[in-house]
Amino acid sequence: MTGIAVVEGDGIGHEVVPVAREILAAVRPDLEFFEVEVGYGRWERTGSACDEETIADLKSADAILFGAVTTPPDPGYRSALLQIRRALDLYANVRPIRGEGVDIIIVRENTEGLYSGIEWTEPDRACTVRVVSRRGSERIARCACSLAAARRHLTIGNKANVLKSDSLFVDICRREAARAGVPCTTRFIDALSLDILMHPARYDVIVTTNIFGDILSDTAAYLVGGLGMLPSGNIGERHALFEPVHGSAPDIAGQGIANPIAAIRSAAMLLTHTGDPESAAVIEEAIDRVLNAGIRTRDLGGNAGTREFGAAVLREVLRGKA
To answer: Is 214 a known active-site residue?
Structure first.
């Protein structure tokens, strides 16, 4: 029995994750789900967004379906997601950007960089240490190369003309690409951010450091209809967590209008990771058929609600499984 930890989190996570879970259960009735509470809502109630018992529960799962968590501007709040990424060593963040004329995978180092967590404040300044290590760079480069080897090309996004840490990152990525026999080029991240919007067909797999990958993938969402369309995987050697790229969106939470596609596609990525790409393809094809039928949520120009769109995908999934 495959055990799936389900974390709804905060905000629209409570709306999109149940939809994704229902579709997962339909396509794979053998999956066993168990709920884990993480996030700002828990922190408000208990003073802890994520504790050691929570981490142990997540480590016990074969994979994690995650929603979205709110991170308030409160110095007493520790980012629950950053805690989980470090505790489970989810070093690779993989974000597919797929749509008409677009097929890009952005691979982002997920545990260091400017999200290293090494920070302190002084009377006249606040400091954050950007960490780019040899080990971190080697393993994210190998992850990206393994994806690019089955595709066409690798682009290394960087700012090595300014940052010494990026010079190390680029050198390591080039070396790993050469070992893997993967063609690669380098692009400065500012130029890359513009060119990916103007000429997306030029790009295949992109590897970059933590915050650059975070910003670049959010920017690239423009190409396929917005953040509501993008899934992601946080992947390590032993654990994996799958989540929509979007945040908790408190401004629309509880209204039933959030786009669940990113969460549903994250569920499909989970299936591929756990060895069932056929069921993942059933889900992706069902989403495409629903969109082609003109059923869309408000962010895509339609009027379908979260549950309504999810129900339409579920019908297509069951039809595909019949």
So the answer is: yes
203 is catalytic: no
User: Is the CB of residue 155 less than 8 Å from the CB of residue 203?
Assistant: yes
Active-site option among 40, 57, 91, 115: 115
Q: What single string gives the DSSP state of each residue in 54-89?
A: HHHHHHTSSEEEEEE----S-TTPPPHHHHHHHHTT
Whether 218 is catalytic is yes
Q: Is 159 annotated as catalytic?
A: yes
57 is catalytic: no
Give 127's strand partners. 120
pLDDT in tens, the chain (322 residues): 789 999 999 999 999 999 999 999 999 999 999 999 999 889 889 888 899 999 999 999 999 999 999 888 877 778 888 899 999 999 999 999 999 889 999 999 999 999 888 889 999 999 999 999 999 999 999 999 999 999 999 999 999 999 999 999 999 999 999 999 999 999 999 999 999 999 999 999 999 999 999 999 999 999 999 999 999 999 999 999 999 999 999 999 999 999 999 999 999 999 999 999 999 999 999 999 999 999 999 999 999 999 999 999 999 999 877 6
- With H, G, I as helix, E, B as strand and everything else as coil, classify residue 158: strand
Domains of the chain, first to last = 1-90+236-322 (3.40.718.10), 92-226 (3.40.718.10)
